Amino acid sequence: MQIKKRLTISNILMLIIPVVVIFVIAMIMSIPFSKAIESRFSIERERDPNAYILQQNIRPDINKFVDKEDFENLTKELQKLLEPKGYHLIITNDGEIISSNVTEEDKKAISIIGDDILFKSNSIVLEMNSASLVKNSFMRDGKIINIIAINSDYKPIIFDFKSEMSKFIISYIVLVIIISLIVVTITNAILSSKIYKKLIVPLELLSYGSEQIKNGNLDFEMNYDSDDEFNQVCGDFNEMRMRLKDSVEMQLKYEENRKQLVVGISHDLRTPLTAIKGYVEGLRDGVASTPEKQKKYLDTIYTKACDMDALVDSLFLFSKLDTGQFPFKFNIVNVNEYLRDFFKCAKKEFYGKEVEISFLSECDTSTEVKLDSQEMYRVLLNILDNSVKYNKNRKLKIEISLYDKGDLIELILSDNGSGVQEEDIPKLFLSFYRGDASRTKPNEGSGLGLAIAKHIIEAHDGQIIAYNKEGLSIKIILPKNYKKNI
Predict the structure, then answer these.
(1) pTM, to two decimals
(2) Phi/psi of residue 467, each to 5°?
(3) Range of the domain at 33
(4) Position 171 in a domain
């Protein structure tokens, strides 16, 4: 999952999860709070001697009372209810008091209220001064039955409903807020921890890679499997490491080649220079005392100087090719016509050297390639020249074959010589390689011919390959040219 998407989801969850959890907790908490409020009100209702509530509690079904015993039981029940609230009871039947437990204080309060209200009025609730009177009147068998409760020391409990509800609500809100903060903190910590791990692991991996590169180690590999932005970053880092490694190896290889080049130049120049010095000293010291010897010495000096000049030209060409500064002149040429012309020139070049050259083409006569004609001529002639130089057979046969391979052409130059040791084939295109470890035969070439040929072929976007097949074969692969791409 992409980090951007993961962060978006994480931010959404940081909102949704706390809201859902807080809502659930708030709903759950509302149950005990509701019960607590109800319990609080119930307790207050139990404590509250409210006259109107009391009137409802002393309203029995008189029709069920048959005899005196029923009234006695009623009296006991009502007294049990009224006494905790400070009330005393009077029950009258047709004006006659049949039960009473009033005190002197109650009697004083009754005298103030008046007998008419007490006995002759219907059901009534009366609160006057510090007295509270509750009366229920019933009609039975034409007689009036009064149940009267009186409290001469009445002190009503004032219950502030608004204040009590405010306290409960504030407590509820504070508790919900505290729990909400805890939930938000825990949710944020968990989600942040997960995001942190997703970020810190690749960052530590990149830090490790940077440290390895700084220390010169390019053989490590960064393995990161998560499908996010860091996957691409780590992949690019690995590619950078590989390119850097290739660059370092190429640089080391270049340095090694340069050293070999310097060694080769030194060796190949020292041999003719030594010869030239020797012959010059011979002329100077009078060793060549006759005109014939002097001419021979001078001819040798000239030949060695020409060898050195050819070596310097080859070095100069190789250097320009190696640095990519050689000015190629490409043209679109018909490959069949070009090779037939080269075949004719090659036959003239090696005429009289017991060399038989043949040409075979299986390529369409209209096939065209992009070539620098002069430099390709140099490559082909160098290959043939090597075949002649290193030939150990009396009669040398060279075959030039051209094949069509789809988008490519293959040009193969084969001889019937002794070939090359298999382990030496990869070294053929190295500079100064002659297949002679002692390097005692500079007259057989500079050892730069095939190295130059490789640079020229690669500049044509081609390949050059050597292999043994009844002698040595050199295969050159070049791309065809399509006019629509020109």
Answers:
(1) 0.47
(2) -160, 160
(3) 3-47+161-204
(4) yes
